[in-house]
């Protein structure tokens, strides 16, 4: 579950609340003669990104069967060389504290 939702959260955060596919679809429709018909009502819902951290903490608490008050999510890039893993990059994606 987390391997899908967290990348989508990052994608939406980087694209003003929309997934990359939503942005591409909106952009392609803007050049069409029938754009007024399609763009009159929103094609997609903009994500409410402020709700995601609360949902994520609730989900992890449920899975872990204990109350989670602090949560940090990192994107870690690593390599495997000569039988060892080496961290190449560590980026904080989300930090939550209740």
Description:
- The protein is of the alpha+beta class.
- Helices cover 43% and strands 27% of the residues.
- It has a two-stranded antiparallel sheet with strand order 1-2.
- Strand 1 and strand 2 (84-97) form a beta hairpin.
- It is flat and about 55 Å long.
- The protein starts with a helix and ends with a strand.
- The mean pLDDT is 87.
How many angstroms separate the termini?
A: 22 Å
Which H/E pattern describes the elements? HHHHEE
Shape: flat
User: How many helices in DSSP terms?
Assistant: 4
- The mean pLDDT is 87
> Describe the biggest sheet?
2 strands, antiparallel
Beta-strand residue fraction = 25-35%
> How would you write the strand order of the largest sheet?
1-2
List keywords for this structure.
single chain; alpha+beta; two-stranded antiparallel ribbon; 2 strands
In short:
With 98 residues, the protein is of the alpha+beta class. It contains 4 helices and 2 strands; from the N terminus they run H-H-H-H-E-E.
Which helices and strands, and how do they pair?
Blueprint: H1 2-14, H2 20-30, H3 35-39, H4 52-64, E1 70-81, E2 84-97
Antiparallel strand pairs: 1-2
